[in-house]
Design goal:
With 215 residues, the protein is an alpha/beta fold. Helix content is 34%, strand content 21%. Strand 4 and strand 5 form a beta hairpin.
Length: 215
């Protein structure tokens, strides 16, 4: 039986409050990691954020944590070359290097890819990967590579669509339908899609509640 994908519902009050409290507390940058041996101890659950370069990952993390510059957004795609760890309550938030930036040097891209694959396949405390998809573009071939890696690594992933405010309603519906169709081929996909806008705040409370209830 094929998995049915839906949009994530509005959180219940208890989950909403849990999410608010989690991100109202201290959220701090812990360290940037360039190799697997630099990862912090696996002493708590963690969630990670993955996405193409320029998908709006830093903006989403800043919106989630209600902090302007916690994750450094850059106008230069591919600038983030480390796995960045943040502490939020009893959980780690992990910002993965952006992928799919064709203009970076080949050696740099290969290094990112190796680190990304090693992390996704080897981190036992990783509870869920949030894969960010730009609503303007939908799931592309380069995203499929990461989704397939997550399938093979048996890591549950959930799609978060970003920049939903940048398209009209008809195009948004078309993008959601494309994402739903593409996810049907991925057994590790969580069946609820979160549609967000970091600028408008859409979907941010829902995503906070999801993360908080994973603990």
């Amino acid at each position: 039986m094929q998995m049915q994908f839906t949009l994530a519902p509005e959180p219940e009050d208890a989950a909403r409050e849990k999410g608010r409290l989690m991100f109202a507390g201290a959220v701090d940058f812990l360290k940037g990691v360039v190799a697997m041996d630099g990862l912090p101890p696996a002493d708590r659950l963690e969630v990670c954020f993955a996405g193409r370069s320029n998908v709006g990952k830093s903006s989403l993390i800043n919106a989630l944590t209600n902090r302007k510059n916690l994750a450094r957004a850059s106008n230069t795609p591919g600038r983030t070359q480390e796995i960045n760890y943040f502490t939020a309550g009893e959980q780690y938030l992990v910002d993965l290097p952006g992928y799919g930036y064709a203009e970076a040097p080949v050696s740099v891209v290969e290094k990112w890819q190796r680190l990304l694959k090693a992390y996704l396949s080897g981190r036992q405390t990783l509870r869920r990967a949030f894969v960010l998809i730009d609503t303007r573009h939908g799931i592309k071939k380069v995203d499929e590579e990461i989704l397939t890696l997550l399938d093979r690594s048996a890591v549950t992933f959930q799609v978060v669509m970003t920049k939903a405010d940048k398209v009209n309603l008809a195009d948004r519906e078309k993008a959601i339908a494309q994402v739903k169709g593409a996810l049907a081929a991925h057994p590790a996909a969580y069946p609820e899609i979160v549609v967000t806008s970091s600028e408008k705040g859409d979907g941010i409370e829902t995503l906070r509640a999801i993360i908080a209830t994973l603990v």
